[in-house]
Description:
Blueprint: E1 5-8, H1 10-14, H2 23-34, E2 38-41, H3 47-57, E3 63-65, E4 70-73, E5 78-82, H4 87-99, E6 103-108, E7 112-114, H5 119-130, E8 139-141, H6 144-147, E9 154-160, H7 164-172, E10 179-185, E11 188-193, H8 198-209, E12 216-220, H9 226-231, E13 234-237, H10 243-247, E14 251-252, H11 260-269
Parallel strand pairs: 1-2, 1-12, 7-8, 12-13, 13-14
Antiparallel strand pairs: 3-4, 4-5, 6-7, 6-9, 9-11, 10-11
Helix pairs in contact: 2-11
Amino acid sequence: MFYQAIAFDLDGTLLTSQATILDSSKQAIKQAQALGLKVFIVTGRHHTAVRPYYHELGLDTPVVCCNGTYLYDFKQDKVLWGNPLTTAQANFLVKSAQELGIHVAIYTRDSMTYEQLNAHFTKFLKWVDSCEDSVRPSVKQVNFPELLDGNTLIWKVLISDPDLEKMQNFVEKLPLDQFSPEWSWVDRVDITAQGNSKGECLTELLKLENIDPKNVIAFGDNFNDISMLSTVGMGIAMGESEQEVQQHAKMTIGSNNEDSIAQTLNQLLGIVK
């Protein structure tokens, strides 16, 4: 099979449980690039939360961010394509979630914002503080009513709650002609404008790069990766992913904490070790 590109989800896939990239994965990526393959990151993260890994890998390609809500070019600090929420949509999501006591975060053009900390954001901020200044993600504590003034671009609203039944009920009541909810973790849902998905945005990126989706390898582990795994020629699910995710993949490999990605790329690309 002739492959032209590799697409990686980050959390639970290219990243270990300690939020690091294995040396074996980095080496395999370098070898793939030496063979002429493009390497893309396709993630639910904001682009500023991708930056540390982007620089660690030495990439120069656009990044699919916030589950396909926008395509970002680091070299130009430019959004190449995007489909943000309207202010009215964002206000509706924030008000509805907060009335139920569900934690809310809002991802704007340049920052990830919150009003109050929860367990996830407390842990996330520790990682942010550990990053070097030059690549540190932008996270801000704000007042949501002031943020939602009609002048701020909103990529997504992130909701989180340990009560999964409450979360499920909230998601099921969302008008799907307006919103695209994606479960990005067991207790977190990313809500974006209707029609956004990793698969759709990756398709737009591949058009820009003149790459046929059938010539792409993609690695993912969660429900928000299904559209990507289904779009490409070789969709690969991580071993700890849910059965539904694996059913949409051509192959299931081992854990993100093992050398599974490197071993798989070596096999698919014929890299001799």
